[in-house]
């Protein structure tokens, strides 16, 4: 059995960041992923300003320009009606995940992580952290980081399930042929395309990423909704779409156990309003590796989770705020008032896009929104947010 300081399972944004950070701290690292990189990845590919900043913090350089395209205009719709056209929003970057993830994985391997990509896992021992690969190879670690997505094998080994089926989100997506004006075309976001979710159209140079996503339990006919959305956008409603689960704000209060940590989607660190998970995946991977390094330096690997939980507090706070604000945006009793306020207030629309772009936090946006809702409704929402905040 080959021993490492840290084993990282999953080489996407969370795993690559964890492996790179751990190697940079002087630890020996094994990076495992079932896929051979570059690999296809179903994802809208939205890269927020927060993601851009985290990439620079972790890797010490900006995202290579050839990996992303910037958009500064968006058209917002709600239930088939145009809400607004915004032409001066903060840059929203879009990436093809195949190339973007490959870049980060290569950085981790180049830094010195042992390459176990394109290798499947047969079993995981979370009590004495170790992994047996399908070919019989055995690896052990003092700290194990599960960054293996919403269907996490590590989370299942720890808790018996990788996600809560009653709270998980689900998205359908397709890469459609690009339109002639894709490079200059704005992004499009459609509230109401899915229940407790939205639709998106991200025009890129080589394709148009189109999808809808929302809370799975509220969208039993999501295939029908996707077909209708494709038709509305002028595409073949019978196009073959792929689906994937989203931990839609259902983050784990305990992101692991002892010397076993969960990062990114495996820990449920996905924005419950936008479904964006790249930013917190990268950041949580970095934080998990930092916690592992501190625990191992103190010769106390089982203290890794305690250290990691402390580092995750700002992310958990932001996700709790977003989960509460989601009530205002998606709940039927509030949605009409929110849409009216959104339609009337240019400053609210721009604040929302600054939020989506990762330029401001949910607390600031919630305060601005409450000021613009009808007084009685605003007070009711404020009480609801206050009560839930105290219970969290």
The CATH class of the largest domain, by name, is Alpha Beta
Distance between the termini: 43 Å
Integer-rounded radius of gyration: 21 Å
For this structure, the CATH topology of the largest domain is: FAD/NAD(P)-binding domain
Mean pLDDT: 89
Which percent bin holds the helix content? 25-40%
Category from helices, strands and their pairing: alpha/beta
Number of helix segments? 11
Instruction: State the fourth-level CATH superfamily of the largest domain.
Output: FAD/NAD(P)-binding domain
When the domains are counted, the total is 2
Overview of this protein structure:
The protein has 392 residues and is of the alpha/beta class. The chain folds into 2 domains: 2-315, FAD/NAD(P)-binding domain (3-Layer(bba) Sandwich), CATH 3.50.50.60; 317-389, no CATH class. 40% of the residues lie in helices and 24% in strands. It has helices at 13-24, 49-59, 97-111, 153-159, 222-232, 278-297, 304-330, 332-344, 346-356, 362-372, 375-391, and strands at 2-9, 29-33, 46-47, 68-71, 74-78, 81-86, 92-95, 114-117, 121-125, 130-133, 138-146, 169-176, 187-191, 197-203, 208-215, 242-246, 256-257, 260-262. A hairpin with a 4-residue loop joins strand 9 and strand 10. Helix 10 runs antiparallel to helix 11. The longest helix has 27 residues, at 304-330. The mean pLDDT is 89. One of its GO terms (molecular function) is FAD binding. Keywords: Membrane, Transmembrane, Transmembrane helix. This is Geranylgeranyl reductase family protein.
């Amino acid at each position: 059995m080959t021993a490492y300081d840290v084993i990282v399972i999953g080489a996407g944004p969370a795993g690559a960041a964890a492996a790179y950070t751990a190697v940079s701290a002087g630890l020996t690292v094994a990076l495992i992923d079932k896929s051979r990189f570059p690999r296809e990845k179903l994802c809208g590919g939205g890269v927020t300003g927060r993601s851009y900043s985290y990439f620079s913090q972790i890797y010490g350089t900006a995202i290579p320009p050839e990996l992303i395209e910037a958009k500064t205009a968006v058209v917002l719709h709600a239930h088939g009606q145009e809400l607004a056209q915004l032409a001066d929003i903060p840059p929203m970057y879009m990436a093809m995940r195949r190339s973007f993830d490959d870049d980060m994985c290569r950085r981790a391997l180049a830094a010195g992580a042992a390459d176990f990509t394109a290798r499947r896992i047969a079993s995981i021992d979370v009590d004495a952290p170790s992994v047996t690969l399908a070919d019989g190879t055995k690896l052990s670690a003092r700290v194990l980081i599960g960054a293996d997505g919403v269907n996490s094998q590590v989370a299942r080994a720890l808790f018996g399930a990788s996600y809560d089926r009653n709270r998980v989100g689900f998205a359908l997506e397709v890469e459609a042929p690009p339109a002639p004006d894709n490079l200059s075309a704005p992004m499009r976001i459609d509230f109401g395309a899915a229940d407790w979710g939205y639709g998106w159209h991200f025009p890129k140079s080589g394709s148009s990423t189109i999808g809808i996503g929302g809370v799975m339990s509220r969208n039993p006919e999501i295939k029908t909704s996707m077909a209708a959305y494709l038709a509305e956008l002028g595409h073949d409603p019978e196009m073959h779409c792929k689906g994937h689960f989203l931990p839609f704000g259902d983050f784990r209060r305990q992101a692991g156990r002892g010397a076993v940590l969960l990062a990114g989607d495996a820990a449920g660190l996905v924005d419950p309003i936008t479904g964006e998970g790249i930013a917190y995946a990268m950041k949580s991977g970095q934080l998990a590796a930092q916690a592992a390094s501190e625990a191992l330096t103190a010769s106390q690997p089982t203290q890794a989770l305690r250290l990691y939980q402390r580092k995750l507090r700002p992310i958990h706070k932001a996700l709790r705020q977003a989960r509460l604000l989601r009530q205002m945006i998606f709940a039927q009793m509030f949605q009409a008032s929110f849409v009216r306020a959104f339609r009337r207030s240019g400053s609210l629309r721009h604040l929302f896009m600054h939020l989506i772009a990762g330029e401001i936090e949910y607390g600031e946006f919630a305060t601005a929104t409450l000021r613009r809702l009808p007084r009685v409704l605003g007070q009711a929402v404020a009480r609801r947010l206050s009560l839930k905040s105290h219970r969290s």
